[in-house]
Records
---
Amino acid sequence: MSQRRKLIQKILMYFIYVLLAVLFISPIIYVFVASLKNDDQIVSDMSSIRAFLLTGALSLDNYVTIISKVNFFKFFKNSMIVAVIFVSLSTVLNGMAGYALGMLNFKGKKVLVSLVIALSIIPTEAIIINRFIVVYKLGLLNSYLGLSLPIVGYPLYIFLYYNHFRNMPRELLEAAIVDGASYSKVFWNIMIPLSKPIISTIVIMGFIRSWGDLLWPTLATRDETYRTLPLALRALNNDIYTYWGQIFAFSSLMILPVLIIFLVFQKQFVSSLTSSGIKG
Amino acid sequence: MPVIILISVFTIIPFLMSVSYSFTNKLLYPKPNVTTKFIGIQNYLKLLTSSTTMGALKNTFLYALMVVPAIIILGTVLAVLVNTELKGVKTFRMIYFSPQVVTMTVVAVIWSFFLAPNNYGLVNSFIGLFGIPAQRWLQDKNQALFCIAVMDIWQNLGMQMLIILGGLQYISGELYEAAMMDGCNSWQKFWNITVPGLKYTLIYVSVSMTIGALKLFTQVYVLTNGGPQDSTTTVVYLLYKAGFINGQLGYSSAISVVFFIIVMIISELQNKVLEGK
C-alpha cells in the first residue's frame, strides 16, 4: 500500500471516529449545556445546532432551584446511602462466597455451585412483587436497609468471583495455611489485594445498578423520605408543567458521581471487560 | 456464609411464593369478602386468553427483535473499527462507552425531550431539513416502542462493543496474514475469519442482550406508562401493574412464572450452544 493511500485511509478512520463520537456523546453534552440555560432559551434553541452550544444567557439558576426547592441533596443522600450499603456489602459478601466456593474444599460444595448457577437465571423482575411482601413482613419497607439489603446477595456476582478464585493458584492458599494463617485472614490479606480487577468491575457494576435502579425503589418506598434520585427525577418529569432546565440540572448532578467513579476505575474495568471474552 | 441467608430470604422465598401464589386468587391487600383459595391453573388460562397479556408478550418479543440484531451488527462493526493501533483510539472507545454510565432514567428523559412531538423537537427539526413532516414519536402507538429501542441501542452499544472487542483480540493475527497471502479482500476476511472467530462472543452477547431486552421496564415506566394504547406495555411492566397497582398477586405471580420460564429456556439454549464448543 502506498504511503499516500495509507494516509487517506487514516484520515478517513479518524473522520468516522469523530462522527461516531459526536453521536454518542452529544446527548450527554447537551444535558450539561441545557442545564445552564433558562426554560425559554432551551425551547427556542431546541430546533437548531444552538441546542448543543453555550449560547444566550447562562446561569446556575437551575442548580440553585433544584438544590433549594426540589431538595436535590436529600434524594442524593438517600441514593448515596443505599449505594454505599449495597456496594460494600455485595462486594465483600459475594466475594467471600465466591472465595469459599472457588478455593476451599468442603462438603456440599458442588451442590452449592450448581445452586448459584441455577439462581442466577432467576430474573429479579420475576420475583419482585413477592420480594416486596417479604420486605413488608420484615418491617423493612421505607428504610435504607429495605432498599439495599434485598439486592445484596447476587448470584451473578458470586459466580464472577467464583470463576476468578477458581483460576487462582491454590499453592498461595496452602502456603499461607501452613504458615498458620486462618482462612479468613488469607481472604483479607492475600486474596483481596490480588483481586483488584474483579473487585473494581463489581464495584462499578454494582454502583451503576444501584444508582439507576427504578423498579425496586418504586415498590420499597412509601413517601419522599427515602425516595432515591431516579424516582425523584421521574416525579419531576411527570409534573404537570415540565421545567426542563431543572430536569437537566438534576440529571447533570445525578450522572456526575457515576462519571467520576467510572473515570477512577475505568482502566481496570475496561481491561476486565475485554479480557473476560465470552465470560462477560 | 451470610450471603446464603440473604439470597434465601430475598430470592428463594419470593420465588417459591410466586410459584405457589400463581395457583391462587391471592390479593395484595386482602378484602374481607374474598378468601384466598386454590384455583388451579385459572390464572394461567386467564393469561393465555387476555389480549393485554398476549399483547405485552408480543411487544416484549418485538422489542427484543429490534434491539438484539441491531446491537449485534452495529456492535461488531464498531468493534472492528476500533480494533486498530491508531493513536487516540482508546479515548474514542471510552467515548463510545460513555452512555453506559448515564443512568437509564436520565437517558429516557433526554430522549423524550429530543423526541418532542411538535415541530420544535430536535429530531423533528432535523428530519424537517429533509422535508419529512414532524412525527409524534413516543405518542404514536406505531413508533413508541421503536423509539425506546433506539435509546436502548444508543446506551448499550459501547458496552457490547468492548465485549466483542475482547473476542476480536483472541483471533490470531496469523489467520489474517495467511488470508492476505491468499489474496482475500477485507470483506472476505471479515466473513471467513472474523465472524466465525467471534461466534461464541456473539452468542453470549445476543443471549445477554435478549434477556436484558425482555426485562424492559424503566423506560416504559418513565416515558409512556405502557401507552399509547398498550403499545409499550411489556411483560415486566404488566406484572408490576397487575401485582402492585391492581393488587392481583396471584395473577401477577402467574405472569412472573411464565416470564421466568421464558428466560430459563433462553439461558438453557445458550448453555447448550456454548457447551458444544
---
Amino acid sequence: MIYTEEFVESRARVEATRTQRLHEEPRRFEADEKRKLLREFHPDYSRKDFTVLQVGPNKGDKVPHELADLLQGRSRVLDRVICLEQIRYDTDVLVIGGGGAGAAAAIEARKQGASVFLVTKLRLGDSNTGMAEGGIQAADKDGDSPAIHYLDALGGGHFKNDPELLEQLVLHGPEAIQWLDRLGVMFDKEPDGMMITTHGGGTSRRRMHACADYSGAEIMRVLRDEVEDENIQIMPYSPAVELLLDENGSAAGAVIYDFDTEEYAVVRAKSVIIATGGSGRLHYQGFPTSNHYGSTADGLVLAYRAGVPLIYAEAVQYHPTGAAYPPQIYGALVTEKVRSLGAMLVNKDGAAFLHPLETRDVVAAAIIRECTARKKGVYALHGPALWLDTPMVNLLHGEGTMERSLPAMIRMYRKFGIDIRKEPILIYPTLHYQNGGICIDTDSATKIPGLYAAGEDVGGIHGTNRLMGNSLLDIIVFGRIAGNRAAIYSRTARPGRLTLEHVRRFEQERAAVGIDSVLLSPKLLPNYTHGRGLEG
Amino acid sequence: MNSGNHMITVHLLGKKFSVPDDLTIMRAMEYSGFRLIRGCGCRSGFCGACAVIYRIQGHTELRSALACQTKVTDGMCVGRLESFPINKKRYDINRLPAVNTVIGQVYPEIFHCIHCNACTKSCPQHLSVMKYIAAASRGDYASCAAESFHCVSCDICASRCPVKISHSAVGLLARRLTGKHAPVSRHLEQRIRDVEAGVYTGRLDQLKHLSVPELQRLYNDRHIEK
C-alpha cells in the first residue's frame, strides 16, 4: 500500500487528538440545525437527481432517475409468448424473495398449513438481511417501552412514519426477538440471560440486540435452516418478472424466469407475498453501495405495474460509514455499532465535528458537508473521505472489546492489511437502504386482494429515514404477519383465469404519454462489466 | 493514495486475461467481461456464494478463497466452487433432545474425522474447522458454536474432507442448540406479557393522535440514556 503525505500527516493528527477526545462528548445538533444541514447537504434534497413519474399510481411524484427508468420500463413478458394455461407450479402461497422477510413469511405460512413455494433470484438467504451487522431493536428492558421506541423511530423518520405500521413494529418487537431466540439465534447475553444491548443513532434507550457484528448473518442462516426444514419448495436462481392477476383483479401468481434454462414459467398461487428487498445496486447519484448484488428494486416494479402505489420512494438512506479505502471493499458497510461503542468521526485536522450517534441521514449529510463545503476531508480513492477513529473502542471499553463485538469488521480490514484496532479508517457515505416502498396496511396487505408485501420493499414504517436496527426488526415482524395473513387468505381464495392484462394496460399508458424506452424491467442484476460481456 | 494499478495475468474459468493487480478476484472477472449470476452474492464476505479454488500457475499447491475478499495475484488460475452439495439433515429444532450426543446422532460422520486438517487449511475465514468438529464430537456444543461462529457456509471445507463431513451444517446445528438453550431472558418474557396485557396501548394511542408539533416537542425534549 502506498500512502500519500497528506494521508500520513492527517492520520498523525487524529492520533494526536485521540486521548483528549476520549473524555469528550460532542453536543447534539438542535432541530433547526439538522433541518438546515439536511436541506443543504443530504442527497435526497438534490434537485437534479430525480424524475417526476408520468405513468402509474404515483404519477406526479418524484423518484430517483434510475428508479423511474425501471418503474416506467418495458415488461420482460411483452415480447414473448407465455401460455398462461400451462401452469408449471401450483401453490397456496407464493413467496417472491429469499431474504429475511421472505423466509419469515414462508415459515409462518407453512405453520398455518398452507403449501408454500418460494422463488428467489439468487440463493435462499442471499439478501441484505445477511449483511446487516449492527443489530435489531426491541424495547424489552426496564426503563424502555414500546412507546419510547415509537417516539425514537418517529423522530428519526421525520414524523412521516405511518402511525399504525409503526405501532405494529414496536409492539411486536419483543415477540420477534423471542421468536428468533427460540429458533436458536445466538443473541449476545449476560450469563443470567439478560440481553446485552447498546445504542444506535437516534435511540434514546439501549435497545440494540446483537450477535457480535454478524447479527443479520446469524439471523439469516437460522431462518434459512428453518425454511429448509419446513417442507417449503424453494426455487433458486428464478426471479419473478411479472405478477399474475385473475379477471377480478386479485393476485393469482407470477411469471418466473429461470436464469439457467432461460425459460419463463407460470406459477399459480392463491396469494402472493413480495419480499424482494432493496435497491442499492441502482447506485443512485453515483454512490457506491453496501447492498447485496441482487438489490435492484424488482418488487417495486412488479407491484407498481400491477397498480399498487409506493410511498416515500424518493427517500433513500445513505449509511454514513461506507469503506472509502481500501479499493477492494470500496462502499462496503462499516457497522454503526462502531459508533455505538464510542468511536468518533474525525476530520482531516483531527477534530470531531458532530455527535457520532445522530440519526443516519444527519450524520451522512454532516460528512458530506465536511468533505465539500468545509474542505476538511482527506483524499481517498474517488474523492474526499473522513476518519472513523476505531482505536477509541478498546481505549474506552478495554482491550478485547473490538475482538468480541466487532470481529467481522476486524476480519474485513485485516484481509487487506489494515488493523482497525491500531489505526483509524477512512469512510464516506454509501447507499444503504430504501426507506420507502410498496404501500401496505397492518396486515402487510396491499390494495390488491391476495397480494402482500414485507421487508425492505415496503414503505411507511420508517418514514423518510430508518433508524439502525429497525430493519432487521421489520422484516421479522411484517414477514411473519404477511405469511400468516396470506396463508389464511389462501384458505378461501379461488383464483379465476390468469391474466397479464395489467401489464398490457401499463404498456398502453406508457405509449399514451410517449415513453418509448426499451429498457427492460425488473432489472434483475446490475451490470459491472464496463460494457464488455453480455449486453444489458 | 495510489495503489499502482500494475497489470497482471490471470486465468479465470480457463480463460486468460490481463487485469489490474488491485482488483479482487470477483472484480477481475467483471473487468474481464463476465456477467455474474452464480458465484456472486453479498460482495462483502458474509454469504459464502463466491467460493473459488485456485492455484498459481506452475505450483502444485491448491488454495481456496472468497472471490469478493481476495486480491488477484500474477499467474492465478481460478476455478469456481458453487452449489457444492452438503448433507444437511432435516430436523425440528424443538424436538431435538437437549443432550450433548444429539449432533453425533444427526451427523454421525463427525466421528469418522481422521484429523487430516484439510478443512482448517482450506477455510477462507481462517477458522479452526477441525477443532470445532472435534468439539461437536465430544459434545462440547458451546465451543463448537463459538469456533464456528464466523462460518459463511462456503463449504470449501466439505469439498476437501476425505470422510465427507458437512462442516457448515454441523456448526449451524451447534449454534442453534446453543442459542436455543441459552439462559432465558426474563425481562423479554415479562415485556411480552405486558404487551399482551395491553399495558402500552393507551400511551401508544395517545402518541398516534398527537399533532406533529406536539410530537416534535416530545422528541426534542426526550431523555437520552447515557
